[in-house]
Fold this protein.
Amino acid sequence: MSQAIEQAASEAPPGAREHLLETASAIMREGDIVDISLSELSLRSGLNSALVKYYFGNKAGLMKALLDRDMDGIVHSVDALMAKDMAPDVRLKRHIGAVVETYYKTPYLNRLLMRLVRESDDEEAQRIADSYLAPLNKAYDRLIADGVREGLFRKVDPQLFYFTVTGAADRFFSARLVLRHCFNTDTLTEELRDRYREHCIDFIMAGILAK
């Protein structure tokens, strides 16, 4: 490790690693992008860019750490929801609302996930799939099976349903250029989030509820 990196690490304030991750997240949220420049990260965070190498190895390592941070939270939240004693339709409504909230806070998430799977070697791509995609798909299998068994849901393909829910949230919150040029706004406000959350819940539940 170079002397400059060691010096930067010795001078880093407590929580510097987490601050770098949160600043990178903010840059991507505000710019509607899935990349950052280290110079902007340093300027926005007030931290030496050498800390990226110290904590993450390189910028790619920073992106992987950000994905891990965000996806860990999602998997834990889904596990907690599935552990609650509630009717499948109530659980699904809460989940859809949580998905919309997630993409409102981290609109870059699905694009970052796909980028890292595409650009990583086979071992890392498999790690991402096993750590995050497999648990989510397993939860969808159980959630839909519970609803079908109780006569609340019609039979649907859990895998395709996962793409429906994720795609609905991802497409909207990564479409600021469409909002700007077609609807004269590119501001993703809390009011717009709330309206879209209710819209998604109404439409998706109408498609899965048993007639």
Notes: Residues 1-57 form one domain. The CA atoms of residues 1 and 198 lie 51 Å apart. The chain has a mean pLDDT of 90. The chain has two domains: 1-57, 64-208.
